[in-house]
Design goal:
Strand content: under 5%
Number of strands: 0
Structural class: mainly alpha
Shape: elongated
Order of helices and strands: HHHHH
């Protein structure tokens, strides 16, 4: 019986079965290894993708900061240039010609222009009022009251603006 069992185990049929089983096990292990390798490659690709996205976002944020910095520096330089130009214009305005007649005319220009504009505005208003038959013929009482209030507000605005401007633009003792 031992010979029969040894014969069966040493037969080519059993060898083929063992060979096929071994081959199947080898292929199964190769597939598992390939799946592991592919999973590893997919995970590595995702990591590289995440790294690239992080690097891109970082570079984009840096570029935005550089743009923002350049804008702020440009704004600062523009403000400095404007202040320099304003300072130079003030120096030119304060410069006296040492000729009393010329300095007097120069000093009277703003008030003269203001008076001229007020006279022109009054003249135009009177002419228009004459053309429409006076304010009484052109508007009812509610419109006249509304216009009166608006006129008072505008005159106060102009008065405040002129006084503030004239006194604010005079050279102070510190600027002299």
């Amino acid at each position: 019986m031992l010979e029969v069992i040894a014969g069966i185990f040493s037969s080519s049929g059993l060898g083929a079965i063992v060979g096929l089983f071994g081959s199947w096990l080898t292929k199964r292990e190769e597939r598992k290894n390939l799946n592991l390798k592919y999973d590893y490659e997919v995970q590595m690709a995702q990591i590289r993708k995440s790294e690239a996205e992080l690097e891109f976002n970082h570079e984009l944020a840096l570029a935005d900061k550089h743009i923002e910095r350049a804008q702020v520096e440009g704004d600062i330089q523009r403000d400095i240039d404007e202040m320099s130009a304003f300072t130079e214009s003030l120096k030119e305005q304060q410069q006296m010609y040492k000729i009393s007649f010329v300095d007097a005319i120069r000093g009277l220009m703003r008030p003269l222009i203001t008076v001229y504009l007020l006279v022109i505005g009054t003249y135009v208003t009177i002419k228009i009022g004459g053309y429409v038959g006076g304010i009484e013929g052109a508007m009812d009482a509610d419109e006249m009251i509304k216009m009166y209030k608006e006129t008072i507000n505008q005159v106060m605005f102009l008065l405040t603006t002129a006084v503030t401007w004239w006194f604010g633009s005079r050279p102070s003792s510190q600027r002299k």
